[in-house]
């Protein structure tokens, strides 16, 4: 699938990853074999605070889980999305309402219209990329 959305350049991505301290992971699975769990565990290992966002789960990776972005007790620096593309527009609405400044849509999560709307609201958006892979590529392991 091709799309026209432009990602931040490598320097901007590096800066983003260096400035972010907390990551709300939407769709974080408690199952260690799932990509969301492996990526979040790796990012946690790199020193980020992971905030699981998944209904019907109380805890993932030793952190309390929340049913949605509105239930978070703190505003995360970045929202990382492991959900199907049709779930992205309401997540963008929540990010805009809550003043969240960065949104990362993982591999295969493509919602060009939602990404453009988020960017127009001043949110830094990365789409269809793996935050772990970019972290390793840009900042080393």
Compact description:
The protein has 141 residues and is an alpha/beta fold. It has helices at residues 10-19, 35-45, 88-98, 112-120, 131-139; strands spanning 22-26, 49-53, 59-60, 63-64, 78-81, 102-105, 124-126.
Report on the architecture of this protein:
This protein has 141 residues and is an alpha/beta fold. It has one domain (10-139): NAD(P)-binding Rossmann-like Domain (Rossmann fold, 3-Layer(aba) Sandwich). The protein contains five helices and seven strands, in the order H-E-H-E-E-E-E-H-E-H-E-H. The strands form two sheets. Strands 2-1-5-6-7 form a five-stranded parallel beta sheet, sandwiched between helices. Strands 3-4 form a two-stranded antiparallel ribbon. The radius of gyration is 14 Å and the shape is globular. The termini are far apart. 35% of the residues are buried. The mean pLDDT is 95.
Number of domains: 1
CATH class label: Alpha Beta
- Count of helical segments? 5
Helicity range of the residues?
25-40%
- Percent strand equals 15-25%
Report the mean per-residue pLDDT as an integer: 95
- CATH architecture classification: 3-Layer(aba) Sandwich
At CATH level 3, the topology is Rossmann fold
Rounded to an integer, what's the Rg over CA atoms?
A: 14 Å
Uncertain runs are none
């Amino acid at each position: 699938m091709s799309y026209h959305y432009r990602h931040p350049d490598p320097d901007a991505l590096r800066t983003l990853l260096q400035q972010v301290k907390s990551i709300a992971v939407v769709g974080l699975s408690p199952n260690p074999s799932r990509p969301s769990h492996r990526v979040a565990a790796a990012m946690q290992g790199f020193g980020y605070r992971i905030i699981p966002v998944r209904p019907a789960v109380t805890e993932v990776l030793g952190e309390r889980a929340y049913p949605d972005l509105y239930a978070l007790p703190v505003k995360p620096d970045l929202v990382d999305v492991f959900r199907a593309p049709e779930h992205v527009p309401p997540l963008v609405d929540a990010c805009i309402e809550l003043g969240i400044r960065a949104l990362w849509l993982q591999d295969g999560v493509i919602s060009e219209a939602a990404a453009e709307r988020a960017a127009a609201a001043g949110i830094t958006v990365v789409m269809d990329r793996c935050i772990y892979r970019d972290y390793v590529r840009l900042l080393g392991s």
